């Protein structure tokens, strides 16, 4: 029997052990476990890797705990601008959305772009209109309200900065993502985010950029990234790992470790990624204090964790 499996992440960054209460840690782990368990059942029953990826990410988008979907952070103007991307490794089809507002599940919108259009990336208000035209759920502003996120935004406004550095609460790069391999040997990846707190001017990070924050190729691997997007963009992280595997004959472990622990830090970049190769090997490297992550595979592997 061919190996199959799923790995997910809920963001990397300065995750403080001191501020991580037992209740909070359990809430994160419970949601992560529910996401990968549901997706794994889809794979176990013969479902596709793309369906498993979307299923896992929807669960994370529907939780206020993560900076994606319901838990998305506030922009400088007090709105929500969400990005998402999905890709399948068999024919290299992909779909992505950037700066969309009030779409309940941006990952579903990205998948709709992939399956219903000839485009790869659409953005802004017209992307939200596209979601409405395809009967995807649109939520009110109140749905996205969270007291912690609101206070986080107010603090960033007072300091007049994009909250990412120099603030323990703001150093979690709250992207969510999933990668999967199904029984047919097809790989898929997906990533979704609310972006950076107090971001201005329609800033877009690595998440919706194919080959940067999201990539899948049946000949190599599926990758979903989380971190300071500008550095991931400059390093073309997701595709770089695939290229190292295909052209340098590196393993997924070797390629991902070099990129996350050598190439990215050399630029000043922090973050992590999850990856799975065509043999079902899973990696979850990160160069930050923690990364919310979990996995389950047909090799009797199961793990959920926050810190190293």
Q: How does the SSE layout of this entry go?
A:
Layout: E1 5-13, H1 22-44, H2 49-61, E2 82-88, E3 94-100, H3 106-116, E4 121-123, H4 124-133, H5 147-159, E5 172-173, E6 176-181, E7 187-193, E8 214-216, E9 221-227, H6 229-235, H7 237-247, H8 252-267, E10 271-277, E11 282-283, E12 290-297, E13 302-307
Parallel strand pairs: 3-4
Antiparallel strand pairs: 1-5, 1-6, 1-12, 2-3, 2-7, 6-7, 8-9, 9-10, 10-11, 12-13
Helix pairs in contact: 1-2, 2-3, 7-8
Structure in words:
- With 308 residues, the protein is of the alpha+beta class.
- The chain has one domain (5-210, 286-307).
- The protein has 8 helices and 13 strands.
- The relative contact order is 0.20.
Radius of gyration: 17 Å
User: Tally of extended strands?
Assistant: 13
What's the total helix number?
8
Q: Could you estimate the helical fraction of the residues in percent? A: 25-40%
The gross shape turns out to be globular
SSE arrangement, N to C: EHHEEHEHHEEEEEHHHEEEE
Q: Given the helix and strand composition, which structural class is it?
A: alpha+beta
The largest sheet, given as strand count, sense and whether it forms a barrel, is: 9 strands, mixed
Q: In angstroms, what separates the terminal alpha carbons?
A: 32 Å
| Average pLDDT rating | 92
Percent strand equals: 15-25%
Looking at this protein, list some descriptive labels:
alpha+beta; 308 residues; 8 helices; single chain; 34% helix; nine-stranded mixed β-sheet; 24% strand; four-stranded antiparallel β-sheet
In short:
With 308 residues, this protein is of the alpha+beta class.
């Amino acid at each position: 029997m061919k190996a199959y499996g799923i790995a997910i992440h809920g963001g990397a960054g300065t995750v403080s052990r001191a501020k991580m209460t037992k209740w909070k840690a359990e809430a994160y782990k419970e949601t992560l476990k529910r996401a990968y368990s549901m997706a794994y059942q889809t794979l176990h029953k013969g479902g596709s890797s793309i369906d498993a990826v979307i299923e896992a990410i929807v669960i994370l988008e529907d939780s206020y705990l993560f900076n994606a979907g319901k838990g998305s952070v506030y922009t400088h103007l007090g709105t929500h601008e969400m990005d998402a991307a999905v890709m399948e490794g068999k024919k290299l089809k992909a779909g992505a959305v950037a700066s969309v507002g009030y779409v309940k599940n941006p990952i579903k919108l990205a998948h709709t772009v992939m399956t219903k259009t000839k485009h790869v990336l659409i953005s802004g208000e017209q992307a939200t209109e596209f979601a409405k035209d395809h009967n995807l759920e649109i939520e009110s502003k109140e749905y996205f309200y969270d007291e912690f996120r609101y206070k986080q935004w107010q603090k960033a406004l007072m300091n007049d900065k994009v909250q990412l550095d120099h603030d323990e609460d703001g150093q979690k790069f709250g992207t969510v993502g999933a990668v999967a391999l199904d029984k047919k040997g097809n790989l898929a990846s997906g990533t979704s985010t609310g972006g950076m707190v107090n971001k201005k001017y329609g800033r877009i990070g690595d998440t919706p950029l194919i080959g940067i924050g999201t990539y899948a190729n049946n000949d190599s691997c599926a990758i979903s990234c989380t971190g300071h997007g500008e550095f991931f963009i400059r390093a073309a992280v997701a595709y770089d790992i695939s290229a190292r595997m295909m052209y340098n004959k590196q393993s997924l472990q070797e390629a991902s470790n070099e990129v996350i622990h050598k190439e990215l830090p050399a630029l000043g970049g922090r973050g992590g990624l999850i990856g799975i190769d065509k043999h079902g090997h899973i990696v979850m490297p990160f160069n930050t204090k923690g990364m919310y992550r979990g996995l389950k595979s047909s090799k009797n592997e199961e793990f959920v964790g926050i810190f190293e």
